[in-house]
Amino acid sequence: MAEWSKAVVLKAIVCKYRGFESLFVRLNLYIEMKNYNPTTSSQRHLILIDRTGLSKDKPVKSLVKGHNKTGGRNNQGKLTSFRKGGGHKKKYRKITFKRQGLNGTVEAIEYDPNRSAFIAKILTDYNKWAYILAPHELQLGQRVESGERAPFEIGNALPMRKIPIGSDIHNIELEPGRGAQFLRAAGTFGTLVEKIQDSDLVRIKLRSGEQRLIHKDALATIGIVSNIDNKNQKLGKAGRSRWLGKRPVVRGVAMNPVDHPHGGGEGKTSGGRHPVTPWGRLTKGPKTRRIKKPNPFRLQDLNQRKRK
Predict the structure, then answer these.
(1) Residue 223's closest CA among 255, 190, 246?
(2) Which of 126, 170, 223, 276 is most solvent-facing, going by the fewest CB within 10 Å?
């Protein structure tokens, strides 16, 4: 039986207490989630997204291809990425991230096993199918457009210079024509903060607080990425993580010396040194960005370089 998630209700109370009712309504965080009766121990804490509104049709055959698993191994067969392996077989959906010239009608909203957001199936004006990232509140039958003349509506892709300041945007290009690379995960969005005078750049603010400079001709999609309550899911059991291709976490101190710098020792040990990665690099907080080679489009890097 579908009920309101405790996390969503708690979020509503916190937002009301802090005086953020307008923000809460604007984000429309009242997403229905599925709670389950505790008929088994694994269902006692299970909370999942209610996907009853998504299409149950098979994906468009011309827009899918095989998706081979790596198990976290590189081309030499060596384990380079931990906690990966197994999982259900998937087919990759070809998403159109280069939105320039893509105009059509939304025919369905579908689940995509390869990403946290939902995808929208579009029937273009040329009578061809295409997949795009589905924004929150995108409706079936709605028309989506892209380009300079596209109206300012959810799901439309416009150049930065045509978007009003303060707008919520996602699916952002780093360079014009390169295809969207920023803000593509479920529930993410950025804010257009400033259009810099006498410059081809605009300033956007990300959810992390980081600020970036983007070319004014780069495309961005209006709205927030769909499936905004993805982070409030509780899988309930280890097996559900294994279905997603996630393997268990193993502490370094529980390994042998050949496997991890913290491994080995008689009895229980603390590792004997500051926490490091399996390759010996410090973890838990040290800065990894190169100050001598700052990113010219990241304001934090530029400001840090100026102070020196």
Answers:
(1) 190
(2) 126
Residue 22 identity (one-letter amino acid): S
Reference 236, options 32, 39, 9, 14; nearest CA is 39
Q: Tokens for 192, please give them.
A: 């257009």
Convert the pLDDT of each residue in 252-290 to its tens digit.
Answer: 999 999 999 999 999 898 988 999 999 999 999 888 888
Cα–Cα distance for residue pair 6/60, rounded to 1 Å = 36
Quote the tokens at residue 193: 């903060």
Beta-bridged to residue 42, according to DSSP, are: none
CB atoms within 10 A of CB 215: 19
Q: Which residue has the tokens 């040194």?
A: 273
Q: How many CB atoms lie within 10 A of CB 7?
A: 16
Cα 306 to Cα 61: distance, rounded to the nearest angstrom: 52
* One-letter identity of residue 184: R
DSSP secondary structure letter of residue 107: E
Residues 274 and 287: their CA atoms lie apart, in Å, by 15
